[in-house]
Give the backbone structure.
Amino acid sequence: MRYLRTLLAAFCLGGMLLSSARAEDNGALCFSTDTFTLRLSADGKVAGFDAADGGALLKDPGAFAVLRLSKDDKGNPSSALTAEGDTLLCEFSTPEGEKLPQRARFRLEAGGPFLAVEPVELTGGDWYALEFARVQLTIDYDNPDGYGATAISAALGSIPLAMPGMSDLLGGKTLGATFPRGAKILLIAAPKADLRGAIQTAAESIAPGAMPVSRAGGPWAAQTPKSRGNYIITGNKITDETAGQWIEHLKKFGIDQIDFHQGGAFRQGDFVFDPEAYPNGVADFKKMTDRLRASGMIAGFHTYAEFLSGDSKYVTPVPHPDLDVMEEFTLAEDITDEQTDFAVEESTADVSTITGFFVRNSLVLRVDDELIKFGAPSKEAPFGFGQCPRGAYGTVKAPHQQGATVRHRTHMFGLFAPRVDSELF
């Protein structure tokens, strides 16, 4: 605790920043938890990260935050940190030293073995991404008696910079598109023997509804017997009437978990449950899984992340505008609603017709609100698409005018994908 006692004149008490710290270390601000101390310098850098026993864990002083104004921006580091009331004001400069108009305001709050860092405001203009609470540590992974550290998200609008679990990189990231949903990162550090419990304590602090917290996975997984059970993945539509047969059969093989694969019991993307098997939707599905649970079995979903089934509401009858596009072309002529061959202005020589489960490609085009499958792109002029069944995926066949945009849609696993920087994603 030597830094607390000799360098600092003021610090964060109970999580609320009371005043700017006066210190020999360029006026460093100090935030202290039960297990570690974070020190920030007035010039926007992380000045120290010290274990409660006094051990210095910081690898290199670096920017506390980095702001990217666009997707291609390499990043603008924090250049000034000032305590204002119960918040920390952060200013940014370009790598060349030019001050930016954008400013971020953070709230830092200590809670036992963790420090919550929450960007509460970003003003001064548009921005693409913000990395914050960036701390690069030196962790001795071979020393069982040493310290461990990690970071987890406490809000849907932020993600850790490294996978949760013992790590030498702390901090989080939020995008301008997701920041309105809240961004909050919990920095956690403790002796290695206590780190799992410290992560549990941090996760327990997350406000209800702010972020899903599984008390059977993550830091609880090692002490959860079901995490070491046996499971099957099935596309079958098990119902309340057939659940008994499944339970009896699977128990013969020591199987106590069923993972319901997308496309069977439920539809990927909008998660509509099969109406024939489950007339009352999720209520009928839950009735069945309650029966599984009563027998000692558990159930889960095997989803394909953000991907979207072709019969989901995001694809048909009107495709969502945020569906991802591989490439775009321009219609070179008016076409009727029955025409199966049409020309485009740009070259189609490199358009692939190779598809497969793990191939990022599709044979699907979108023109206005119609999806059109294609079979044969022209490899030489005049360029275009041929063998095109119209009105694919339940969309409406329609005539289209010269100059309309022809969008080649993205597929993976036979499913559509949203554009990564979109609201649909």
Remarks:
- The first helix runs from residue 2 to 6.
- The chain has a mean pLDDT of 92.
- The first strand starts at residue 29 and ends at 32.
